[in-house]
TrEMBL record:
CDD domains: YjgF_YER057c_UK114_family
Gene3D superfamilies xrefs: RutC-like (3.30.1330.40)
Entry's family note: Belongs to the RutC family.
UniProt-recorded name of the protein: RidA family protein
Domain of life: Bacteria
GO terms of molecular function: deaminase activity
One term under GO cellular component: cytosol
Pfam families: Ribonuc_L-PSP (PF01042)
Length: 142
């Protein structure tokens, strides 16, 4: 698919094998920008490859799985977590953001953290899911 104004830009919708197969959406859109590729990731939750929620009633464990999923998507596209430029957090209890930040700091460059948005929500798509995180990465083409 070509995007208006970008004659050679292509978009590929992907589902890395390390993640559960999604129903009705793709885990990521990979956009070829010529000198780099942008990876726009769907919101990730604490589901493992089999679709099992990791960390029922445990925000820390759910957040760890979310970041493992994001890392899998980035690495499947030739990047590292250093390539993350934006994170969007949707959390059911913002008073527990310190737990999320503690886990996040194990995965991102804390000296140069990505742009971020935090939104408290009353509910996510399942009652037992406590956090969902969207991410965008820009990976230089080698």
């Amino acid at each position: 698919m070509a995007l208006q104004g970008f004659s050679q830009t292509t978009v590929e919708l992907v589902n890395p094998p390390a993640l559960a197969t999604p129903k009705g959406y793709s885990h990521a859109a990979v956009i070829d920008l010529g000198t780099a590729k942008m990876i726009i990731m769907s919101g990730q939750v604490g589901l493992d490859k089999q679709g099992t929620l990791i960390g029922k009633d445990d925000l820390e464990k759910q957040t760890e799985q979310v970041f493992r999923n994001i890392k899998s998507i980035v690495e499947a596209n030739g990047g590292t977590m250093e390539n993350i430029v934006k994170l969007g957090y949707f959390i059911t209890d913002v008073s527990k953001i310190s737990v999320v930040r503690s886990v996040r700091d194990q995965f991102i460059n804390t000296q140069h953290p990505p742009a971020s948005t935090l939104v408290e929500v009353s509910k996510l798509f399942r009652d037992d899911v406590m956090i969902e995180i969207e991410a965008t990465a820009v990976i230089p083409v080698k």
